[in-house]
Design brief:
Helix content is about 35%, strand content about 10%. The protein has a four-stranded parallel beta sheet. With about 220 residues, the protein is of the alpha/beta class. The two termini are about 30 Å apart.
Amino acid sequence: MAINVGNDWQEIFDVEAKKEYYIKLREKLVQEYTHNTVYPDKEDIFNAFKYCSLADTKVCIIGQDPYHDVNQAHGLAFSVKEGVELPPSLINIYKELSEDMGAPMKTSGCLDSWAKQGVLLLNAVLTVRAHQAASHKSLGWEQFTDNAIMKLNEREKPVVFILWGNFARKKAELITNSRHYIIESAHPSPLSASRGFFGSKPFSKTNKFLLKNNIIPIKW
């Protein structure tokens, strides 16, 4: 699992790739991809970083792990490939977006347009075994992605961190610089969206903060 993102994350990841935890993670991934069906495809694992450089990141939305059904995951948290049926969580994200920003409901679940504007759609765990949610939770990805979050935290230019659900909210402890803005709420899944996700207005809050800091807002 060579890391090749082609931007300013590369130097950081080259260092990570030499660390013992990542060497062990890579060995486990080779076995997983050899003997099981794993998502996303190997070439898509690092898409969040390929599409959104460290310097260009304006917003970081943190998810847990990739979708685990056929043809869904493609390396961007909460996103699915073009033509794939919208997962329930993404439907609720779009409902909140429509209510928050007055936009029509989207029909495509591919969020690469967000990523290319500077939204880092980061799952804490970057791979998953087919039909087994959280099956790669203990492989070592969390150390890799926590280090990426801490690199964002070090930046002078402010970042909006959007933390949906208890898992993502635990990442707030990594975000220590007051220049950044943290938006927290319940998760958009059908089990919890009505308990604080709906009505939280994360999209308008994000753009208001970006404009206040002279950063071009996101076209959600």
